[in-house]
Amino acid sequence: MSDLPAWLQLLIYVCFVILPAIIMLAGCGMLARVWRFRQACETVTGTVVEIITHRHFGSGRAETLYYQPSFEFSAPDGSTLRALAASCGVNMQYPIGSTREILVNFNAPKEVQLDGCRSGIITGAACVLIGGGILALGLYFVISW
Fold it and tell me: What is the top-level taxon of the source organism (predicted)?
């Protein structure tokens, strides 16, 4: 690597060591956040009371609709609470009045997650695996040069 210009060495180091390390750490943070939430939450049955529609205009001005359900559920003290799902999607247009298993942290019940929603785990694991793989290759090449 000593025969490469200094700017190219720095670029390789940044692209194949620093950025992958940041991506890997971000994935670890996502996984830790999901784990902490799951430790603090309870599974309850929520009733869909409203569907909020979000419009997104992508490339070519194509419109995509995303749906975010709002749930009512019972708190441990018997009161009825209402909260929005933490995520929305194109396939979340549930019928009003239908029930779903949701995860609720009763210390902060403003947002709920659908039980079975694994998007945080999948995204976090992908960041760890991809970032870690590129980091390992980058370190191998940097050290071997």
Answer: Bacteria
